Amino acid sequence: MDLYLISSDLTGLPLWSAVFIGSLITLIIASDFFIKASERIGIALGIPAFIVGVTMIAIGTSLPELITSIVAVTSGLETSVIVPGNVIGSNITNTGLVLGIVAIVAGRIKLEFDVMRVDGPMLVGATFLIYLCLKDGYFSVFEGFLCLAGMDLYLVYVLTLGRKGGEPSDAVDLPAEGRMSKISWKEPIILLLSAAVIYFSALYNVKSINNLGNILQVGKEFIALTAVALGTSLPELIGSIVAIRTGNVEMAVGNVIGSNLVNIFAVMGIPRLFGNIQVADSLLSVGLPSLIVLTLLLMYILHDKVINRWEGWILLLFYVAILGSLIGLQMSPS
């Protein structure tokens, strides 16, 4: 009887897989339109370019994860488990897969900026903070505000760094048509339409995760840790490879560290304001410990301001090992 039910349920697998992939792609594309329109409007309103740039970079790279997490929380406690899975999975994917592939493609990444002065310790601190917040299986409102305080601290640091970095426009690659004195009538329309598309694509993404979890009889946090994390990390991967091809190797590393910090601070903190967040056992037993190990490994690799190709292979192997552990945990009898 159980076999018949599973077989019957599998008839919906192609449909919800297509919905999942389609909604994820749409979410990423719409987020890109939203970010670019926000940048142009900000510049037109006279907001300094470096402020628009660093805030859009900080928030924009994690916008798909953020909106998906907010929708997951507002959809109910059962789907809220997606939120920590989203954060932990994205950070594991960014560090192990994205940075690993980037180092392999680049061959050797030499950093001029001392990432271990502030950025590295801040990422380690944020990772241990989220571990302490989630280890009891409950993420409180107070802990959510702690994460938001961390986000404020990070933004102050980035803004201060932007002011010291020279020409503000160096902080972000704004298109030439974005530097304007008046707001084009197209920009508000693009902003509103992309916001609507972001919301509905996130809504269907969460619905597809819920249905795929039920069909495949796996935890929703597992899908968030793996498939969602991979999909939402693809822009960082593509952007980092492009940055390397154009000679901006430091930007590739900065994208990963910045995205990981925003994931922990904003993607965990903001959704908690909309409702309770459930923490799955697999996150506590495999996800969080793996993220801590991978983050500390990254800090060790970065201590000499060089990432060699063989170190990229190590990061990638760790990612595959973590993925294997998560799959093994889902396949093991409960």
Outline: globular
Largest sheet entry: 2 strands, antiparallel
CA gyration radius, whole angstroms: 20 Å
Computed structural class: mainly alpha
What is the spatial order of strands in the main beta sheet? 1-2
What does this protein look like?
This protein has 334 residues and is an all-alpha fold. The chain has one domain (2-329): Up-down Bundle (A middle domain of Talin 1). It has helices at residues 2-9, 13-44, 49-60, 63-74, 82-106, 119-134, 141-164, 186-216, 220-245, 249-272, 281-302, 309-331, and strands at residues 108-110, 306-308. It has a two-stranded antiparallel sheet with strand order 1-2. The longest helix has 32 residues, at 13-44. It is globular. The model is unreliable at 1-8 and 166-180 (pLDDT under 50).
Give a brief rundown of this model.
The chain is built from twelve helices and two strands, in the order αααααβααααααβα. With 334 residues, it is an all-alpha fold. It has one domain (2-329): NCX, central ion-binding region (A middle domain of Talin 1, Up-down Bundle).
